[in-house]
Every structure is written in C-alpha cells, then in structure tokens.
Automatic annotation (TrEMBL):
Residues 196-209 have a biased composition (Low complexity). The lineage of its organism: Eukaryota, Viridiplantae, Chlorophyta, core chlorophytes, Trebouxiophyceae. Pfam families: Methyltransf_11 (PF08241). Residues 33-109 form the Methyltransferase type domain. GO terms for biological process: methylation. Keywords: Methyltransferase, Transferase. It comes from Chlorella sorokiniana. Residues 189-209 are annotated as: Disordered. GO terms for molecular function: S-adenosylmethionine-dependent methyltransferase activity. This is Methyltransferase type 11. The keyword Transferase applies. It comes from the Eukaryota.
Length: 209
C-alpha cells in the first residue's frame, strides 16, 4: 500500500499512527517521513529510518496537534494508520488533511472497523470505528478520486483506501501527480474514470451507483 500510493521520485510524507516497521515499506527515494503520535519514541523511529535508509522526523504529540502544525500544500502523501477514532469531528480532520496535501497528492489510510467476525476474541472493538466514518472520507467533496476496499488483517476487518487531491481547482489529477503511475492507472481503470464509492456490506465494501 505505501510503496504503491506514495510518490516515487522523492516524497515528503506525514504519517500518523503505525509502527516503526512501516518505514521499510516506503519508496527508497522518499525524502522524509514525519511521524507523529502521543506514544512516538523519537529514538526508535529515527533508528528505524537509518536502517531503512529513509529520513525520519519523529514528533511526540497528539495527532491533532501534529497535523494542524503542518504548513499548507507541503505533503506528497498523508498516511493515517488507525487514526479516525482520534477525531471527534471527521470534517475537521479531512479539511486539515486536504490543506496539508499538495495538489495531486494522496491520502492513504488503513482503519480497523467494528464488526469483524473474530473481533470479540481479539480484544473487542477498541480502536475500531463504525464504517460510516469511511463513508465520510469517500463523500468529502474535495477528492478527485477515492477508492476503498475491505481487507482482513489477522482475521480482523479493516478498511484500506487511497484518495487523491486534484492537481487543479477543476480536478483532473493524473498519473503525473503524487501517486505511482501504474497504481493510479489501475485505480482509474477499475473505476472507469469515475470516483469510486463503496459501502460495507456482507464483509466487504460494495460500489455505490
């Protein structure tokens, strides 16, 4: 996911949540990954960055503070790993993400969902969100394109998605933007050039008309 939807050729990335192993999945020529969260250990993250040969700046702070402190149009990708439950106002989160992303840049997210078949056996629903929050990401007016799928990770249901900010005010993001060309074209073929909207149903997300 990170290797496919984070810009090749030098990206500046903001990652909220996740673990140090995520650093090893970024493109080798990533310029910098800024990682934020209340439990971030700067030393561990920077060591992982040296091992992965990806420069890392670690910020120990609440994700809301980390995101709001970023300058506008500075990130080639924003990566949210199980972060939606941290925001009381999804529209505020999405507007901040949109502000920080460069034109043509991507929001990449993985989010644990309520309702997985083995969730009661895997520690309950802590950190999981209602699938309607995923709908809010899909329905956000600013995206040029958005694709979301359901995936099982350790028998636990997750939403995995990517959204693209337009290159221009009139839309028309392209493979020349921040996403990997092959990955972008695959998404566009799948959606037949239209924005994809899916909803959770019977263990997966179904395309909306």
């Amino acid at each position: 996911m990170l290797a496919r939807h984070v810009k090749q050729g030098g990206a500046r990335v903001l990652q909220l949540g996740g673990s140090t192993r995520d650093i090893f999945y970024y493109p080798a020529d990533t310029i910098q990954v800024t990682v934020g969260g209340p439990d971030v250990s700067p030393g561990l993250w920077e060591q992982a960055g040296m091992q992965a040969k990806v420069p890392v700046q670690a910020v120990k702070a609440e994700p809301q503070k980390v995101l709001s402190s970023q300058a506008g149009s500075t990130a080639d990708s924003i990566v949210l790993l199980n972060q939606l439950q941290e925001w009381a106002d999804m529209q505020q989160l999405l507007s901040q993400v949109y502000r920080v992303l460069k034109p043509g840049a991507t929001l990449v997210f993985v989010q644990r969902l309520r309702g997985g078949p083995l969730q009661p056996l895997l520690g309950g629903s802590a950190g999981a969100v209602d699938p309607t929050l995923i709908d809010q990401i899909q329905d956000y007016a600013g995206w040029d394109f958005v694709q979301v799928d359901a995936a099982l990770q350790s028998s636990d249901l997750h939403a995995v998605g990517v959204a693209v900010k337009p290159l221009t005010a009139t839309g028309n993001a392209s493979a020349d933007g921040s996403v990997d060309a092959a990955a972008f074209e695959a998404l566009m073929r799948r959606g037949k050039g239209k924005r994809q909207q899916q909803q959770q149903q019977a263990g997966g997300f179904q395309q909306k008309p």
